[in-house]
Amino acid sequence: MERRLTAILAADIVGYSRLMGADEAGTLAQLKEIRSELLDKKIAEHQGRIVKIMGDGILAEFPSVVSAVACAAEIQQGMQARNASMLVDRRIEFRVGINLGDVIVEGDDIYGDGVNVAARLQTIAAPAGIAVTQSVRDQVGNRLDCAFEDCGDQQLKNIDKPVRVYNVLLEEAALTGMRSTNDPRPSVAVLPFTNMSGDPEQEYFSDGITEDIITDLSKVSGLFVIARNTAFTYKGKAVKVDQVGRELGVAYVLEGSVRKAGQRVRVTGELINANNGGHVWADRYDRDLTDIFAIQDEITHAIVQQLKVKLLPQEKKSIAQLPTDNVEAYTYYLRGRDFLYRFSKRYFELARRMFVKAVELDPDYARAYAGIADCDSWLYMVYQADVSLEGILETSARVLALDNNLAEAHTSRGVALSAARKFDEANVEFERALKLDPNSFAAHFLYARPAFQQGNISRAVELLERAAQINPTDYKPPALAIHMYRSLGRDQDTKAAAQKTVELAERELISNPEDPRPAIAGALALLELGEEDRAKDWTTRAHAIEDQDPICLYNTACVYSHLGDAKAAFSLLEQVIRNGRPFWKDWIQNDSDLDGIRDHPGYQKLLQRLEE
After folding, report:
1. Which of 106, 164, 379, 539 is the 20 to 30 Å CA partner of 578?
2. Nearest-angstrom CA–CA distance, 296 and 265
3. 0.90 exceeded by the pTM?
4. Strands 130-133 and 109-111: what pairing?
5. What distances in angstroms separate CA 383 from CA 349, 376, 380, 576, one per listed residue?
6. Is 256 helix (H, G, I), strand (E, B) or coil?
7. Beta-strand relationship, 187-190 and 224-225
8. What's the pLDDT tens digit per position in 388-432?
9. Distance (Å, whole) CA 497 – CA 489
10. Which CA distances in Å does 212 have to 200, 350, 434, 469?
């Protein structure tokens, strides 16, 4: 019996059953073409050997992990180019897992834990993605044009011990807020500034300073700046600069701290070379709070100067343009922004108060008006609050009148138009927001909902997948995607989204134990994974926290639909739609989580109620 250490590549087709069910002959013809024109050639070019073809999967081995990862990257890039001109529902995408491990050789076949780990890795890789183990990541080092995202320890099915997993970030990763290795511009990651105020309640202020510095630096065409949500995945973590540089593919890292006390503020900043740890620039600002905008401006210009980047005239003007000159209004806005994306009635109401106070202090504060419109839209649609739809549309229109080049403004207008069910106009606004800021989590996530309401589930999934790339720590995008993947017949994606939802929802519950939504989202994910008892426990926990929130009630109805308890599901849905908006009709009609009750006589009665 021969044993050897080898690099194992396992690849599998995403949604193979769906593709075969829709067009068996066409899918097989595509696969034959892909093998002859791409797979076989690339594997041979990198001295690999195809061990076996398994219907929708392939197993190959390589003499080195560098060869295996390089081959996988070229295959995925080749598939992206091939799929660019194809209809979404016809595209073939691969997931790839790569492991370095000991294998048993028997004839032309290989067996053992090394193979098993690679096979399990591909099941948790993203569509068109590559997942690798710690040993692969360490062996590759900086020898390839790719970066790595640390996904932490993962418990793989039928593998005894957790495995450290990394996602490979390819050259096209500029679309996900990561840097392309072919991009000649100086590249910077701004890590979340540390709150040194001694008061956790001031966290919103240090986060706001960080976000605004990222925004200002992103306006400089001569720089590549890592997206806000990607950078914020490092918040609260003890990481080394060289690690950040490797994982994000950047040459420089900006760190800092903020101490706010009364009307004084101290901000420190330090720009570090990620390759050698050398300090490029550092400064400390002890100023009055009213100077906070000047401090941000000085930090931006210091970095631009140190990296010898030339500012274009329009960029100088854009950076110099203050969102407000009233620091108190700015502070209220930051507090409101912190509340807004917690997505519950209480926090929408709190956020609205902060935004209203901000516009009272500065009547021309566009971002604060956008916040008001967002809060009112969600209070109107989801919580049946007594809010004027005409007033929401007027507020969102005012935002655009104040700043038509603000992605936030177009996102806000899109949400408002969606609330008014003017979907065609809303789509135009969302698309404009995405063009202005391709790394906007809010634009992608908030656009996915009306896309789903319109029955455009494929587009909704694309938006949620992009939102999850931009902010991989938020449980909401994968949670929403579960039932959408199911509707599209993408079974493996459904399971993967459910696993990710449980993992992220658990973290969210630790951070915000007063929020019922991660618990009920986690319950639905657990049902998808077949863990019924845990799902019931999480449902009970959600209702112990809050038993009147419409989103919580709706998702609990979905839980009961899965459990076959139609009576309980309809009782909850009746509560949700009582004086409800059409928003809920779209979800009830399109949500596959409710498939379990559609044949029940009560379902037609419910639809009649929605038509009243």
Report:
1. 539
2. 12
3. no
4. unpaired
5. 11, 10, 6, 9
6. strand
7. parallel
8. 888 888 998 998 899 888 888 898 888 889 888 899 999 999 999
9. 13
10. 20, 22, 19, 21
